[in-house]
Amino acid sequence: MSITVLVVDDHPVFREGFAALLGSIGEIDVLGTASNGREAVDKVARLHPDVVVMDVSMPGMDGIEATRRVLAERPETGVVVLTMSEEDGTIFDALRAGARGYLLKGAEPDEVVRAITTVAGGGVVFGAVLATRIADFLGPRPPAVSGETFPTLTAREREVLDLVAAGLSNSQIATRLFLSQKTVRNHVYAVVTKLQAADRAEAIIRARDAGLGR
Fold first, then answer.
1. What long-range pairs does 112-115 form, CB within 8 A, spacing at least 24?
2. What distance in Å separates the CA atoms of residue 27 and residue 24, rounded to the nearest whole number?
3. Residue among 19, 23, 2 at smallest CA distance from 55
4. pTM
5. Which contiguous run of DSSP H or E holds residue 115?
6. What local confidence, expressed as pLDDT, does residue 167 receive?
């Protein structure tokens, strides 16, 4: 039986060209296309595709929120994200939303077809580069920073300082620790205040002198 697919992308040339390419493959039946997340949610409810190939950056409702809503209504649907974004935050937001595939635009057509086939069969697939980054993220973490280092800080504040000293941005720290960026900003402010540092840069220097951020 053919795998039924819905293609979602806000760029009409890419969307229709990609849909035509998939439609030329015997094992895939393209049921239709959508130009934004809201339209995607509506069409999934009506057409019941096996797999949705979903862009991320779209007007109105983006692909992450659309993925979340699609799977809330039809959890049996497989979502393959196909996007330009290599940002860690986007990758992990897609995972949290329930996507089971993540490929970068520019992937070879046969790689996309394999991803669609794998996801339709219940599997999970990511491009080679992204798979390595995910493995690194989920791999063993370095030992927690000792409480003897900067004893005025809480354990979470020391953890944040360690990542700041390692050169991570607030956005990257938020993704790593599963926190909001606002919470990370608050922790950084508390760290700078408690260390009586002039600014973030001075806090980094002092943290690295103490062996953090390695």
1. 112/22, 112/53, 112/80, 112/82, 113/22, 113/25, 113/27, 113/28, 115/80
2. 9
3. 19
4. 0.64
5. helix 109-120
6. 86
pLDDT at residue 196 tops 80: yes
In DSSP notation, 24-53 reads TSTTEEEEEEESSHHHHHHHHHHH--SEEE
Query: Does residue 41 carry a pLDDT above 60?
Result: yes
Identify the sign of the CA torsion 193, 175, 8, 41.
negative
Phi, psi dihedral angles at 2 (to 5 degrees): -75, 155
pLDDT at 186 over 70: yes
Rounded CA gap, 13 and 200, in Å?
45
Contacts of 56 (CB under 8 A, 6+ apart): 62, 63, 64, 81, 83, 85, 90, 94
pLDDT-derived band at 213 (thresholds 50, 70, 90) equals confident
Domains defined along the chain, listed by start = 3-137 (3.40.50.2300), 155-209 (1.10.10.10)
Structure confidence at residue 49 (pLDDT): 96
Residues facing residue 19 across a β-bridge = none
Query: Between the CA of residue 184 and those of 92, 96, 129, 180, 189, what are the distances in Å?
Result: 17, 19, 27, 6, 9
